[in-house]
Design a protein that fits this description.
By secondary structure, the protein is α/β, with parallel strands linked by helices. It contains 16 helices and 17 strands. It has one domain: Glycosidases (TIM Barrel), CATH 3.20.20.
């Protein structure tokens, strides 16, 4: 199974989950720093965002290890609160840090793919209302312009947002992100402002003729109905519209799905917008799409009697044939990656795209350590291999996919779950900060250097 020439192999991470140095280097407080300070008991084992994986201090060593693992690309994010602590003055210490990171990646033959926002809003903007507040759209546009100007000579591939729907779902329909409320009207307003921030960043990038390309990364979860009955099929349609197409259609096609507009009308949702917004959206399509794929969404007909509005439209169900990751509680369904590939090919103009995240989180990996001290994570190798077989099939059938990034390079700090589930090709010792390659790192090296699937080993 040979992959196309020039195929990108690497990993994804983010500034807040990897850098550490949360209160040093001139960085201001973001929402996670604030929340941990306020409610540390909400965080698994009370591990906060101050240290995380220590990339800020260990990036030279880590980039060397990436090179040794066969990477030709790596995606991370800039910390908004580090680059612009007060929203006005640029933090030159942050500029020096990021420039050295991007230079070292390039010198190591590793293309940097740089994301602007990965769930880490500066706390000063959260105090102003966060994504509820239209002013934050303009703040984000200014931040994007600064990033393009300061790093555009080193970075050719930019991403505006990673999984923009997640802070909306988890913060406005759940209590896993701030502000932790259930308010459908606020959710739509925050989602709309996020989309407009993305569009203005794309416009700023293209208007100034920066080199390279700009895209967005979406977590696409194919929606499968429980049966072929009209009600179950309708449920799958609503799940797809609300969780996939709500961002996918605007960023690629420049328009909102008719079904989404119908939902807004049916639920009497009021979204504030400015004149010119829709034309700007139409004129600002992305150059490429990143896709994070972990699990499918299986749905059945909704329950009209439920007090939860979304439950009226669809409800989840557990497929009897599901293969589960018991540590994360997620279904492992490799064919979903193929289904995404064909959807992009057939319904989105076969836009260039890549797998921006795919990985398996496992709790208690130390029990798989062999006599030499290496974690024998054969389950992770099998997970990647089985997904890549389906991705390869999609590529053979004409889908324009140009890369695969695993989540993640080194065990990452992960929001409220911290280090409960480990995802890395490289193990992080929390006590010493030392790094140790897992078995999967060697397998990934063989994959990347040969550009084809190796044996499971």
């Amino acid at each position: 199974m040979k992959f196309p020439d020039g195929f990108l192999w690497g990993a994804a991470s983010s500034g807040p989950q990897m850098e550490g140095a949360g209160s040093s280097g001139g960085k201001a407080q973001n929402i996670w720093d604030y929340w941990f300070q306020k409610e540390p008991v909400r965080f698994f084992q009370q591990i906060g965002p101050e240290e995380t994986s220590g990339f800020y201090a260990h990036y030279k060593e880590d980039i060397d290890t990436m090179k040794q693992t066969g990477f030709n690309s790596f995606r991370t994010s800039i910390s908004w609160a580090r680059l612009l602590p007060d929203g006005i003055q640029v933090n030159e210490e942050a500029v020096a840090f990021y420039r050295d990171v991007f230079k070292r990646l390039d010198e190591s033959g590793i293309k940097p793919i740089v994301n602007l926002f990965h769930f880490d809003m500066p706390f000063r903007l959260y105090e102003k209302g966060g994504w509820d507040n239209r002013e934050v759209v303009d703040e984000f546009e200014f931040y994007a312009k600064v990033a393009f100007e300061r790093f555009g000579d080193l970075v050719e591939e930019w991403v505006t947002f990673n999984e923009p729907i997640v802070p909306i779902e988890m913060g406005y329909l759940n209590d896993k992100h701030l502000p932790g409320v259930f308010d459908l009207n606020r959710a739509f307003q925050a989602g709309y402002h996020t989309l407009m921030a993305h569009v203005k960043a794309v416009r700023a990038f293209k208007d100034r003729n920066h080199r390279g390309k700009i895209g967005i990364i979406l977590n696409l979860t194919p929606s499968y109905p429980r049966s072929d009955t009209p009600k179950d099929l309708e449920a799958a349609m609503w799940a797809d519209v609300l969780y996939n197409r709500s961002f996918l259609d605007p960023v690629v096609k420049g328009e909102f799905p008719e079904e989404l507009l119908s939902f807004i009308e049916q639920e009497h949702i009021h979204v504030r917008y400015f004149p010119g917004d829709f034309q700007l959206l139409k004129d600002s399509p992305v150059d490429f799409l990143g896709v994070n794929y972990y699990q499918p969404r299986r749905v059945q007909a909704g329950a009209p009697a439920s007090t939860n509005t979304l439950d009226h439209y669809f409800e989840p169900y557990q497929w009897d044939g599901a293969k589960m990751n018991p540590h994360r509680g997620w279904e492992i369904y490799e064919k979903g990656m193929y289904d995404i590939a064909l959807t992009i090919r057939d319904q989105y103009g076969n836009i260039p795209w890549y797998i921006a995240e795919n990985g398996m989180g496992v709790e208690g990996e130390s029990r798989f350590r062999d006599s030499s001290g290496m974690i024998q994570d054969s389950y992770r190798i099998e997970f990647m291999s089985n997904h890549l077989k389906w991705l390869h099939k999609g590529i053979e059938e004409g889908s324009n996919c140009y890369g695969y990034h695993v989540w993640t390079f080194i065990d990452n700090w992960s929001w409220l779950n911290e280090y409960k589930n480990r995802y890395g090709l490289v193990e992080l010792d929390l006590k010493t900060g030392r790094r140790y390659k897992k078995k999967s790192a060697g397998w990934f090296k063989a994959l990347a250097e040969s550009n084809q699937l190796p044996d499971l080993g």
